[in-house]
Give the backbone structure.
Amino acid sequence: MALSDFDTTGNEDTGNVLYKIRTMLSELYTGFSGVAATFTGLVTADGLKVGTGTKTASATAGAATLNKPSGVITSEALTTAAAATYTLTLTNSEIAATSQVLVTVGNGTNSAGLPVLATVTPASGSVVIVVRNAHAANALNGTIKVAFVVLDA
C-alpha cells in the first residue's frame, strides 16, 4: 500500500482513509506480510506518518517503549481474569497529547478469554491502552498483540 492510495474524499468505501488505516493495522498485526511499498525514511501525509525499521516491541509489567508512528506490541504472558482489565503503557516520542492513536487488539499465544479494546488515552510521549477480558468465565492465558497507528491532529 502506498500513501498515494489514500483518498481523503471518502467517496468510495475502499478509498476512504479510515478503511485504508484499518487495512494498514491489519497488515501490521499479521506480521507486516503483503506490504508492497518500500520506505527509506519517514513519510508523512495529512498527519499520517509511516516510518521504517523495527516496529515491534515486547511489554514487561504492562510497559513498553517503541518510538515509531506505528507498530505492534506483544504483551507479557497474561492471566487477566474474566471481566478484568490489563493496562499497557506505551512510551513513544511520536505521540502528542493531541494525537489520535488507533489501536487493535488480538491474540498472541492467548487461547482463552476474549481481549477487547476498552480505552486509549494519549498523552505527551505516551499512550495508555486498557484491554478488557470480555469472556464471561475464562481468564487470558498467554500474550496478546496490540497494533497501533499514530495520527497527528
In short: The CA atoms of residues 120 and 129 lie 5 Å apart. Residues 1-12 have pLDDT under 50 and may be disordered. The first helix runs from residue 17 to 29. Strands lie at 43-45, 48-50, 56-58, 63-65, 70-74, 85-91, 100-107, 115-123, 126-133, 144-151.
